[in-house]
Hints:
The protein has helices at 6-19, 28-39, 47-53, 106-117, 123-138, 152-155, 174-177, 179-189; strands at 57-59, 70-81, 87-97, 102-104, 120-121, 143-151, 166-171. The protein is of the alpha+beta class. It folds into 2 domains: 6-39, no CATH class; 57-189, GTP cyclohydrolase I, C-terminal domain/NADPH-dependent 7-cyano-7-deazaguanine reductase, N-terminal domain (GTP Cyclohydrolase I, domain 2, 2-Layer Sandwich), CATH 3.30.1130. The chain has a 5-stranded mixed β-sheet, with helices on both faces. The protein has a two-stranded antiparallel ribbon with strand order 1-4. The N and C termini lie far apart (41 Å). The mean pLDDT is 93.
Amino acid sequence: MDSADTSGAQAAARNLFKCLNIDLPAETPERFVKMIYDLTAYQNTTNKQIADILDKTFEIGSSTDSKSMVLIKDIDAFSICEHHIALMYDMKISIGYIPRGFVLGISKIVRLVDMVCKRLQLQEKIGNDIIEIMNILTKGPDIAVHIKAKHSCVTARGINNVSAETVTTNFSGIFAKNDAASSSFFSVLK
């Protein structure tokens, strides 16, 4: 928590709980602030900065270009909704891309998801951010992102519907232009 004002944040948390007439153990504000800090560790990191951190690709040559899709399926993730500061959970993120001479290490893709999700976010924006970073890293335009999640702002408050899931897809390049490519992505997801 380098430059964060943790004592100010803890005082604000203490005051918030006091204003809501919630009596908590003395250490709760400190733990609450640390949790929020951890869950938003990349809040002020741009997509370009994330790409710079993860910039490790492997050249594969042009012989495989446009002939195969790389798919990383069902990456477990969670994030915090920027509207309600509520948990988006049971999130499964799948990312497909068509290499254009370069592939990205699989662990880097999983790490990319983790970094993007450690921001106050919207599910729709998570998909867009992943595409933007993948475009930079793979040096190619053809990216597909599928996200399925539950939102505690629906399941634990408001309507209290525990079975509702939100599904979003984001496409760029050939996946956005070509029905056969997007259909191929969806068929491999099944």
